[in-house]
C-alpha cells in the first residue's frame, strides 16, 4: 500500500502521526498513493459478478423495476446493488445508453471530478490528476465514502452538473420577493432537492401596509408555498417536497406560526366527523394546509434566558423593530412544546449558538437551514455533502486507523471543493453565493455500529468521547486541507471581509478539542492527532486564508448509507439488533447484526458464550435475559427501537458531544415515547440550548392523527419456578369449546374505512365475554364477502375455544393494505386497513382499560384525559356497567393435564420473522411505508429512508 492525497505549505514539510506528505511541485496539489498500486487499476484488484435486479410492487406483485445482468463487486450486498441500479444508473432501461455496471457509474463521476480539477488548476501535474482519479475510484468502489445523491444523479450526464442537496433561500418583505420564493422553491423541488427559508422579514399581520390596511403576515403566505410544494411533489420524482420554514421567536405572528400544523390536525378530525372525504388522496384533503414543510422556531439567547428566569419577552415589528407587545416567555415556550407534543412541529433552532459559530457575519447572519437542519449558512446558498463510512477505519484488532482516516478526509474535502468549480445551480443568486463562499459538508455514517462493535454504549461517557474525537479530527483535517487549498487556488471570495471572524471560529473549534475527555487508546490517539492538525491548520490559515467558509456537518445519509452497506445512518444508533439480508436468488434471511458478536468479543466473552447470546438475539430481538450476558453490558446493545431503547436525553447528549466540532449542525430527530409529557419536551428543548446545540427536532410516538397507534408492551411469559429442581413448570392446557346460547346479546357497528363501508356485529356470552363476530363488506356472493364470512367464522370458533381477544388485537392491528385511511369512527381516526380498524373497535368495546393501555388503544375521551394530566381510566365507560373481569378472557377453558417440562422454551419465544420484527420494534408504525416498494421505512436523521429500494421521504 502507498500513501494518499496530501500537500504541505512548504517544500519537504512532513505530516505527523506516521502520515507521509507528498512534496509540492510548483503550483497545484501533488497526490500520493494510499490505497492504490501504480500500474494496477482498482477495478482489476477485485472480483466482479453479474446480477439481476428485479423489484416488485408490494400491492400486486407486479414488476416496477427490472434490469438484468448488471455488474457489481462480489462484496457489495444485494441491497446496495438494487439501490444503486434503480436510483443512480442513468439512461433509459433497455437502451444502449443505459448504464449496466458500477464501473460506468464510478467512471462517470471520477473522471468528471478529475477533469474539473485539471481545468481549474488543482493538480501540479497530469500524473497527480491520474493518481487522484484512481484513488477516488478505489474509495468509492470499496465503500469508504459516498457523495450525496445529486452527484450520482447528475455529474457526467447531459443534465446540469447539480452537486448540491441542500439549499437556503431568502424572502424579503415585498410581493416580488415572495413570488420569487415560490418560483425558486419550485425549481429546487422539481430537481428532487429541498430548501429552507426564514420568513421573519415579512411584516406581521398586526402591522400596516403602505395603503393603510393590515398586512397578511408570513403564515398567510405559507399557504401558497405549501400548495405549490404539494402540487410539484405529486408529479415529481420525490415522494414529498422537502422544505423548512423558520420564524424568529420575536416575530409578532410567532404564536400563530407555532399553532399552524397542530390546528390542521384538529381540522382533519372535524371535517372527517362532518362527513367530508378526508382520506389520503380524497377530494377534501387538499383543504389541509402546511403539511409539506418542517417548521422551526428560531429562538434567541435573550428569549431562552427569559424562559429560564420567568420574565416577559418583547415581540417586535418588522418595519422598524419597535416593540408591538410583550408576552410571558414561559407561556410562549409552553405553547411551542405543546404543539410539538401534539404533532411534532415546530422544531427549535438556537440562533445565539448558530451565529456565535458563524464564519461570515460581515456578509450576513445565518437565518435559516436546509430541510433537515444540518446545513446552516448564508441566504441564497447551497452545500454539497459527502459522508465517510466509519466502520472501514476500524482495524481487525479494533484500533481506529487514524492515519488512513486523515488521508481519507483530506481526499474527500479536495474532491468536494473541486466540484464547486464545475457545478451548476438552480438560480444565479445561489450560484454566486456558493462560488463565493464554497460551503462543504463532510460528515460520516455508521457511528452507531462503530460504537457497538467497539463494546461501547451509545449513551455513555466513553461512547460520546469516541464520537467527539472522531468528529474533532474530521473537522480539523477538513480545515487544514481548506487552508492548503487556499494557498494553491486562493481563499474564498468572501474571506477578506470576514477574516477576523473566520479565524475566531477556527480557534473556537481548536479549543473545543482540548475539552474532549478521553477514555481509551482510540479516542486518545484521535484527540492527539486533532490537536496537531489544528495547530497546523491555524498556522497555514494565518498565511493562506481558507478556501471554504464551512467544511463539516452531519447529514442523515439515507440512500447513500445503504449504498455503502452501512448498518447505521449518520449519527444514529443501531435501529435494532436484527435485520433482514436480501439474497442474490431472491428472498431474504434474518440475521443478527455483525456488530453484535464483535462487541461481545470486545467485552471479553468466549466464542461459546457469543454463539449462545447471538442465538438468543436471533430468536428474541433483544439481549434481556440472554444466557451468560452480564446486565452491566446491556447498555452496549441499546437501540433506537425495541426492548431496550436509548433515552431521549441520550440522543441529546450525543449531539452535544459532537456539535462543537462541526461547521454546521446535525440532522437528527429525538424520539420520545407516546407517554412523554409536554414537560418532557420542554426539558429536551431547554437542555438543547444549555448544551450548545444548534437545532433540535422531536417526535413523540403516535402524536400525529395520520399515524396509526403503535407501541405495545411485551407480554411476559407466565412461569412458575420449582426451587429444588430449578426447572420451568409449564401448565399444559387442552381447550374446550364453550358455545354461545341460542339467544345472545349482540351489537352492530357500521363503519367506513378509506371510503369502504361495512358492518361489524359482535355477540357476547351472558357474562359479557366476546364469543362471536361477523364482518360484512361488499355484496353477498362476491369474493370479498366470502372471504370476510370465512374469516368471521374462524375468529368466532377460536374465541369460543378460549383464544384471548387481546392476542388477535396484537396480531391484526397495524396490518396494512388497501382500503386504508380515514374512518368515520371518532375513537379511531386512521386505520391502516379494514382489519386494523375492526380489531381496534373490538378492543375498545370488549377489552378493559389496562389491557388496551398496554396495546396503545384508547378512546378519544381517554386520550384527552391523558393529555390534560387526568386519569384516563376514570373516563369513558361506567365501571358499574361492565364486568372487566369477564371481559378479560374470551371463554373459560378446562385444565386437563399438568406436567413438568425441563428446559421448556419460554412462551415469549417468537415463531416467525414477522413476530420477531414485532418483538424488535413493538407495534411501532409511525414510520411510513415506502411508496415505491411498500417496505416499512426507517428513520434517517429527520427523514425516513427505505431499506428496500433507497427511496427517501425528502432528504438526499
From TrEMBL:
The UniProt record lists the keyword Ligase: no
Protein name: Vitamin B12-dependent ribonucleotide reductase
Enzyme nomenclature, EC number: 1.17.4.1
Cofactor(s) required, per the database record: adenosylcob(III)alamin
UniProt-annotated stretches for the region Disordered: 1-24
Function of the molecule: Catalyzes the reduction of ribonucleotides to deoxyribonucleotides. May function to provide a pool of deoxyribonucleotide precursors for DNA repair during oxygen limitation and/or for immediate growth after restoration of oxygen.
GO biological process: DNA biosynthetic process
Database matches in InterPro entries: RdRp_reductase_class-2, RNR_2_N, RNR_lg_C, RNR_NrdJ/NrdZ, TSCPD_dom
Keyword Magnesium (UniProt): no
Catalytic EC class: oxidoreductase
Chain ranges of the Ribonucleotide reductase large subunit C-terminal domain: 164-699
Occurrences of domain TSCPD (ranges): 741-844
Residue ranges constituting the Ribonucleotide reductase class II vitamin B12-dependent N-terminal domain according to the UniProt record: 53-143
Key words, A-Z: Cobalamin, Cobalt, Disulfide bond, DNA synthesis, Nucleotide-binding, Oxidoreductase
Family indicated by similarity: Belongs to the ribonucleoside diphosphate reductase class-2 family.
Catalytic reactions on record: a 2'-deoxyribonucleoside 5'-diphosphate + [thioredoxin]-disulfide + H2O = a ribonucleoside 5'-diphosphate + [thioredoxin]-dithiol
GO terms of molecular function: cobalamin binding; cobalt ion binding; nucleotide binding; ribonucleoside-diphosphate reductase activity, thioredoxin disulfide as acceptor
Amino acid at each position: 500500500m502507498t500513501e494518499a492525497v496530501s500537500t504541505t505549505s512548504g517544500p519537504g514539510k512532513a505530516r505527523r502521526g506516521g502520515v507521509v506528505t507528498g512534496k509540492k511541485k510548483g503550483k497545484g496539489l501533488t497526490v500520493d498513493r494510499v490505497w492504490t498500486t501504480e500500474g494496477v487499476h482498482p477495478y482489476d484488484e477485485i472480483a466482479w459478478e453479474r446480477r439481476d435486479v428485479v423489484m416488485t410492487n408490494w400491492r400486486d406483485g407486479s414488476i416496477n423495476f427490472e434490469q438484468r445482468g448488471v455488474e457489481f463487486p462480489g462484496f457489495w450486498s444485494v441491497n446496495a446493488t438494487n439501490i444503486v441500479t434503480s436510483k443512480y444508473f442513468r439512461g433509459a432501461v433497455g437502451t444502449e445508453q443505459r448504464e449496466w455496471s458500477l464501473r460506468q457509474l464510478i467512471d462517470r463521476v471520477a473522471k468528471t471530478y478529475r477533469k474539473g480539477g485539471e481545468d481549474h488548476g488543482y493538480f501540479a501535474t497530469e500524473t497527480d490528476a491520474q493518481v487522484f482519479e484512481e484513488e477516488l475510484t478505489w474509495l468509492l468502489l470499496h465503500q469508504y465514502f459516498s457523495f450525496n445523491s445529486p452527484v450520482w444523479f447528475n455529474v457526467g450526464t447531459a443534465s446540469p452538473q447539480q452537486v448540491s442537496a441542500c439549499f437556503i433561500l431568502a424572502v424579503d418583505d415585498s410581493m416580488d420577493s415572495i413570488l420569487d420564493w415560490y418560483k425558486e422553491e419550485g425549481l429546487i423541488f422539481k430537481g428532487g432537492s429541498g430548501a429552507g427559508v426564514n420568513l421573519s422579514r415579512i411584516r406581521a399581520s398586526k402591522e400596516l401596509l403602505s395603503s393603510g390596511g393590515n398586512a397578511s403576515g408570513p403564515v398567510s403566505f405559507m399557504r401558497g408555498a405549501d400548495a405549490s410544494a404539494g402540487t410539484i411533489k405529486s408529479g415529481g420524482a420525490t415522494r414529498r417536497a422537502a422544505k423548512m420554514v423558520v420564524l424568529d421567536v420575536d416575530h409578532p405572528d410567532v404564536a400563530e406560526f407555532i399553532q399552524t400544523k397542530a390546528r390542521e390536525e384538529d381540522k382533519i378530525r372535524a371535517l372527517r366527523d362532518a362527513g367530508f372525504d378526508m382520506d389520503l388522496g380524497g377530494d377534501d384533503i387538499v383543504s389541509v394546509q402546511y403539511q409539506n414543510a418542517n417548521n422551526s422556531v428560531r429562538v434567541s439567547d435573550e428569549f431562552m434566558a427569559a424562559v429560564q428566569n420567568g420574565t416577559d419577552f418583547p415581540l417586535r415589528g418588522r418595519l422598524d423593530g419597535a416593540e408591538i407587545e410583550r408576552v410571558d416567555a414561559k407561556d410562549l415556550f409552553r405553547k411551542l412544546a405543546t404543539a410539538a407534543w401534539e404533532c411534532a412541529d415546530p422544531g427549535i433552532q438556537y440562533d445565539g449558538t448558530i451565529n456565535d459559530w458563524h464564519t461570515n457575519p460581515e456578509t450576513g447572519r445565518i437565518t435559516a437551514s436546509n430541510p433537515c437542519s444540518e446545513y446552516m449558512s448564508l441566504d441564497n446558498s447551497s452545500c454539497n455533502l459527502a459522508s465517510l463510512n466509519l466502520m472501514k477505519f476500524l482495524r481487525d484488532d479494533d484500533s481506529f486507523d487514524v492515519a488512513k482516516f486523515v488521508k481519507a478526509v483530506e481526499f474527500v474535502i479536495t474532491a468536494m471543493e473541486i466540484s464547486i468549480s464545475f457545478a451548476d445551480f438552480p438560480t444565479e443568486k445561489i450560484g454566486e453565493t456558493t462560488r463565493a463562499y464554497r460551503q462543504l459538508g463532510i460528515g460520516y455514517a455508521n457511528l452507531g455500529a462503530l460504537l457497538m462493535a467497539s463494546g461501547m454504549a451509545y449513551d455513555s461517557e466513553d461512547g460520546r468521547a469516541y464520537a467527539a474525537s472522531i468528529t474533532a479530527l474530521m473537522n480539523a483535517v477538513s480545515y487544514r486541507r481548506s487552508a492548503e487549498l487556499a494557498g494553491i487556488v486562493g481563499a474564498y471570495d468572501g474571506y477578506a471581509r470576514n477574516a477576523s471572524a473566520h479565524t475566531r471560529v477556527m480557534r473556537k473549534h481548536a479549543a473545543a478539542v482540548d475539552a474532549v475527555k478521553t477514555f481509551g487508546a482510540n479516542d486518545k490517539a484521535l484527540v492527539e492527532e486533532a490537536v496537531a492538525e489544528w495547530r497546523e491548520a491555524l498556522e497555514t490559515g494565518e498565511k493562506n486564508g481558507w478556501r471554504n467558509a464551512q467544511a463539516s456537518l452531519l447529514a442523515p445519509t439515507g440512500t447513500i448509507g445503504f449504498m455503502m452497506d452501512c448498518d447505521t445512518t449518520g449519527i444514529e444508533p443501531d435501529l435494532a439488533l436484527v435485520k433482514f439480508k436480501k439474497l442474490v436468488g431472491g428472498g431474504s434471511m434474518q440475521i443478527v447484526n455483525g456488530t453484535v458478536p464483535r462487541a461481545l468479543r470486545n467485552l471479553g466473552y468466549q466464542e461459546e458464550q457469543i454463539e449462545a447470546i447471538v442465538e438468543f438475539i436471533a430468536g428474541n430481538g433483544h439481549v434481556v435475559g440472554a444466557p451468560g450476558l452480564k446486565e452491566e453490558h446491556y447498555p452496549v446493545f441499546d437501540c433506537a427501537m425495541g426492548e431496550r431503547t436509548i433515552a431521549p436525553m441520550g440522543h441529546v447528549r450525543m449531539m452535544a458531544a459532537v456539535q462543537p466540532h462541526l461547521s454546521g449542525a446535525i440532522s437528527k430527530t429525538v424520539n420520545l415515547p407516546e407517554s412523554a409529557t409536554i414537560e418532557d419536551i420542554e426539558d429536551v428543548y431547554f437542555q438543547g440550548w444549555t448544551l450548545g446545540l444548534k437545532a433540535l427536532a422531536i417526535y413523540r410516538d403516535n402524536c400525529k392523527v395520520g399515524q396509526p397507534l403503535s407501541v405495545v408492551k411485551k407480554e411476559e411469559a407466565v412461569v412458575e419456578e420449582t426451587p429444588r429442581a430449578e426447572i420451568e413448570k409449564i401448565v399444559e392446557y387442552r381447550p374446550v369449546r364453550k358455545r354461545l346460547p341460542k339467544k345472545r346479546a349482540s351489537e352492530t357497528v357500521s363503519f367506513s374505512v378509506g371510503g369502504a363501508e361495512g358492518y361489524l356485529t359482535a355477540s357476547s356470552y351472558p357474562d359479557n365475554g366476546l364469543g362471536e363476530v361477523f364482518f360484512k363488506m361488499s355484496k353477498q356472493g362476491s369474493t370479498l364477502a366470502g372471504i370476510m364470512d370465512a374469516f368471521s367464522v374462524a375468529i368466532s370458533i377460536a374465541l369460543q375455544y378460549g383464544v384471548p381477544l387481546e392476542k388477535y388485537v396484537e396480531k391484526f392491528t397495524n396490518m396494512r393494505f388497501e382500503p386504508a385511511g380515514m374512518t368515520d369512527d371518532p375513537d379511531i381516526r386512521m386505520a391502516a386497513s379494514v382489519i386494523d380498524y375492526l380489531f381496534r373497535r373490538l378492543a375498545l368495546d370488549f377489552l378493559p382499560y389496562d389491557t388496551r393501555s398496554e396495546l396503545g388503544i384508547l378512546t378519544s375521551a381517554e386520550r384527552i384525559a391523558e393529555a390534560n394530566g387526568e386519569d384516563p381510566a376514570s373516563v369513558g365507560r361506567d365501571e358499574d356497567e361492565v364486568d372487566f373481569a369477564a371481559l378479560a378472557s374470551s371463554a373459560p377453558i378446562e385444565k386437563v393435564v399438568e406436567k413438568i417440562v425441563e428446559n421448556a422454551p419460554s412462551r415469549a419465544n417468537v415463531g416467525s420473522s414477522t413476530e420477531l420484527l414485532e418483538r424488535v420494534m413493538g407495534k411501532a408504525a409511525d414510520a411510513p411505508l415506502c411508496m415505491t416498494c411498500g417496505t416499512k421505512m426507517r428513520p434517517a436523521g429527520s427523514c425516513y429512508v427505505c431499506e428496500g429500494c433507497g427511496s427517501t421521504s425528502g432528504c438526499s
